[in-house]
Automatic annotation (TrEMBL):
Domain Peptidase A1 residues, every copy: 102-448
Pfam families named among the record's database cross-references: TAXi_C, TAXi_N
Record GO terms (molecular function): aspartic-type endopeptidase activity
Keyword annotations of the record: Aspartyl protease, Glycoprotein, Hydrolase, Protease, Signal
N-terminal signal peptide: 1-39
Official protein name in the record: Peptidase A1 domain-containing protein
Length: 455
């Protein structure tokens, strides 16, 4: 992604405003109606925000096989950290995060500074590493750290502000600012909350975000990006802060994408159309307890592979409360997880049924690929059946072989679905070539197959 593709109408608008006016506007937004504030200043509320996404691996010169190995490693790392954080007691972990693979470039501040974020429907906070990072306590990133002192439009968020309290863990700094800790499967980040103007490929907004001064993350999870843009249901996500009632994204394939970009649309511009038929379902209501209130739960009920409907106990996908504030199970759709992972009660029947159907075509998985079922690469389209995810209300999502089998070495391709823990996660590999619409206000999730490079 190059700066040439970035436009920043918001920045121009900003520079005409007196700094004090901007600060009070921002504070007004925060303390009053954070949820519906984006419209002020003609941000992106009418037309919405558009972001161009680049697959992080497209920035390195990785082969298809290397990309799959990276994705397997990342998915495993995430799963391992989920187990670690859930204490092995079978309760779901807090917000999980190991890697994000699609990144967006944006501008923040006045004069604008460049930043790059991984896009995450599985968390809320927007954050970027800042010059407050002491030596070596933050992750390496490709762009310079954000310098809040160099931005005329930056304002710290006071610790008494509602936006500060919206962080699960926060405290008052000595200067009255808001210090937060955000935890993910791959570690935590610590920083202070501020507001500034953001400009995306098109559209922009004044947003509260974390200026990170300390990261303790598994090395490599940022992939050189400077931070994260959370799209979850919580108050500090980009979606909530801009008052967007919906958002959509369409991910170009991991492979054979000729460098085509994917796009994310937040707000009015997000809609389906022009592609295949639209399938739609209600979201499963999220528990109110943070962090479970972040996730987008889908009503997955069953799986068919080839002509066989798998025998999976109906409870396998249920979201259930195990204790006060603890929920287990459920199925979330996550732009941040590379590969889908299924609860054991669903994964085992899938693996066993496919092993039976592919009998004769199966080859040994490459050493330490971490994958269970493999065939010769050239055989995939010939022998691997379509997999159908059945959601509530008769909504079916058909995954062609290319959406759940991936090349792992020169001669071998393997099933890119992993065994997870109690929660099942529909990862971004399984979302390729689909336009997904999250109608947050309407409580519905819709999708259609699409050529994402043309959107
Ligand atoms: C941040 O910006 C301020 C004001 O322009 C400048 O004095 C300072 O050196 C900058 N800090 C870094 C680390 O670049
Ligand atoms: C394949 O099918 C044959 C005959 O039904 C059976 O003996 C063999 O165990 C099967 N192999 C696998 C890998 O399932």
């Amino acid at each position: 992604m190059t700066t040439a593709t970035m436009r920043s109408p918001r920045t121009k608008l900003k520079s005409k405003m007196a700094p004090t006016a901007l600060v009070s506007l921002v504070l007004f937004c925060l303390s009053n109606v954070l949820i519906t504030c984006s419209g002020s200043g003609g941000t992106g509320a009418e037309t919405g925000i558009r972001m161009k996404l680049t697959h992080v691996d497209a920035k390195g010169s990785y082969t298809a096989e290397e990309r799959v190995r990276r994705a397997v490693a990342a998915s495993r790392q995430r799963l391992a950290s989920m187990r670690a954080t859930s204490g092995g007691g079978g309760v779901s972990a807090p917000v999980h995060w190991a890697t994000r693979q699609y990144i967006a470039e944006y501008l923040v501040g006045d004069p604008p500074q460049r930043a790059e974020a991984l896009i995450d429907t599985g968390s809320d906070l927007i954050w970027t590493q800042s010059t407050a990072c002491l030596r070596k306590v933050c992750a390496r990133q490709d762009l310079p750290y954000f310098n809040a002192s160099a931005s005329g439009s930056f304002a710290p968020v006071p610790c008494r502000d509602r936006a500060c309290a919206a962080n699960y863990r926060h405290l008052c700094a000595l200067d009255g600012g808001c210090t937060f800790v955000a935890s993910y499967g791959a570690g935590s980040v610590i920083g202070f909350l501020g507001t500034d103007s953001f400009a995306f490929q098109s559209g922009g907004a004044a947003l509260a975000f974390g200026c990170v001064s300390f990261t303790r993350l598994t090395p490599g999870v940022l992939h050189g990006a400077s931070g994260l843009i959370g799209l979850g249901r919580g108050r500090l996500s980009l979606v909530s802060q801009t008052g967007a009632t919906r958002f959509s994204y369409c991910l170009t394939p991991y492979f054979h994408n000729d460098g085509a970009s994917s796009h994310l649309l937040v707000g009015a511009a997000a809609s389906l159309g022009g592609g295949g038929p639209v399938t739609s379902m209600p979201f499963v209501e999220s528990p109110k307890d943070f962090p479970f209130s972040t996730f987008y739960y889908l009503p997955l009920e069953g799986i068919t592979v080839g002509d066989t409907k798998l025998s999976i106990p109906s409870s396998a996908f249920d979201l259930r409360q195990v204790d006060k504030g603890y929920w287990a199970g459920g199925v979330i759709i996550d732009s941040g997880s590379p590969f889908t992972s299924l609860a054991k009660a669903a994964y085992e029947p899938l693996r066993d049924e496919l092993a039976g159907q592919l009998n004769g075509s199966l080859v040994a998985p490459p050493a330490d690929s971490g994958l269970a079922l493999c065939v010769t690469r050239g055989d995939v389209d010939r022998v691997v059946p379509t997999l159908v995810l059945h959601f509530g209300g008769g909504a079916d999502m058909a995954l062609p072989p290319g959406n759940y089998w991936a090349p792992v070495d020169k001669s071998t391709a393997c099933m890119a679905i992993l065994e997870g823990y109690e929660q099942s996660i529909i990862g971004n590999f399984q979302q390729q070539n689909m336009h997904l619409l999250f109608d947050v206000a309407g409580g519905r999730f819709s999708f259609q197959t699409a050529d994402c490079s043309t959107l």
